[in-house]
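Consider the tokenized backbone below.
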């Protein structure tokens, strides 16, 4: 993706917009993304609907989301997600890619997670039966000043902070396959990972629910074969049960996948996320996907 590193380094969630509708020259991307359903890296197809915001829809968003408030957003993006095994990771990856591209055109956004079934937003979108509405994303042009409530949310979840590399990325050496680790996970530094440094930095800077940054990436090395990268979740206890039908930390994992992929494309590294669970997994983490070059 063009300018991925610059966009990722400078983006911030936007909860205060100037109220102006999105102009025609910026609508191309929205139009193409919204007319056809989009396929995620792990195989789920998601339809993203754009609806014009209104006081009723904005109130429904604020009532059903897990935290936060929105001011002056002209449009809402509402992904309609089928109940499939990898749907949460896929909606994270599909929508974050779209949001990065919108950010590149000067359009701000903020994820709001919740279960949006049963209210005005659901009535507007008319989702297929057996689907979930796990998130609503207001989009538009940033207001010149942040609102007091936006500043308060940013402060309460510590939005400016990110975990260090040593808390997120690890290396594990194996004898000859991925069954018997030779070493326990040891932190991976940027100097030890020059070929993937920029992608890992893009994941580190990614947004996440309550800024929990639950992703962990393990590089598995052997003497004989190529290195493998596995994305896992280190869950905050109970977070998978907070919202009915919605696994917010799997959405976070999909967001991380989108950041990695966008930078890989920008620097000309081919590859894709696949579900190919290794035989051995470190203690206390849940497998999500592996990067396949
Ligand atoms: C999947 C996801 C869900 C989020 N849900 C909410 C939400 O419900 N309400 C909210 O105000 N912000 C939400 N956020 C925004 C995060 O609070 C924000 O990304 C984080 O604090 C880091 O700040 P930044 O995005 O400005 O870097 C969400 C972000 C992600 C990626």
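A designed sequence for it:
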């Amino acid at each position: 993706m063009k300018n991925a590193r610059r966009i990722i380094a400078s983006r911030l969630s936007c909860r205060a917009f100037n109220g102006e509708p999105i102009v025609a020259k910026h609508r191309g991307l929205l139009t193409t993304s919204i007319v056809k359903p989009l396929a995620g890296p792990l195989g789920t197809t998601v339809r993203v609907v754009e609806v014009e915001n209104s006081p009723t829809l904005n109130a429904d968003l604020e009532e059903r989301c897990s935290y936060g408030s929105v001011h002056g957003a002209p449009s809402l993006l509402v992904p309609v997600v089928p109940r499939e095994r990898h749907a949460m990771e896929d909606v994270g990856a599909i929508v974050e890619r779209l949001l990065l591209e919108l950010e590149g055109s000067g359009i701000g956004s903020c994820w709001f997670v919740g279960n949006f079934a049963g209210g005005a937003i659901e009535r507007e979108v008319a989702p297929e039966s057996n689907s979930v509405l796990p998130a609503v994303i207001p989009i538009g042009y940033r207001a010149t000043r942040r609102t007091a409530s936006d500043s308060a949310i940013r402060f309460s979840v510590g939005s400016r902070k990110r975990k260090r590399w040593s808390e997120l990325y690890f290396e594990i050496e194996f004898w000859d396959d991925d069954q018997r680790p030779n070493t326990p996970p040891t932190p991976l530094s940027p100097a030890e990972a020059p070929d993937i440094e920029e992608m890992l930095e893009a994941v580190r800077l990614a947004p996440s629910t309550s800024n929990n940054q639950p992703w962990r990436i393990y590089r598995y090395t052997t003497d004989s074969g190529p290195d493998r990268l596995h994305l896992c979740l280190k869950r905050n206890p109970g977070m998978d049960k907070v919202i009915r039908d919605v696994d917010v930390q799997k959405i976070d994992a999909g967001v991380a996948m989108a950041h990695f992929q966008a930078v890989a494309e920008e620097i000309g590294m081919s590859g894709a996320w696949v579900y190919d669970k290794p035989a051995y997994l470190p203690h206390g983490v849940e497998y999500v996907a592996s990067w396949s070059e």
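The mean pLDDT is 95.
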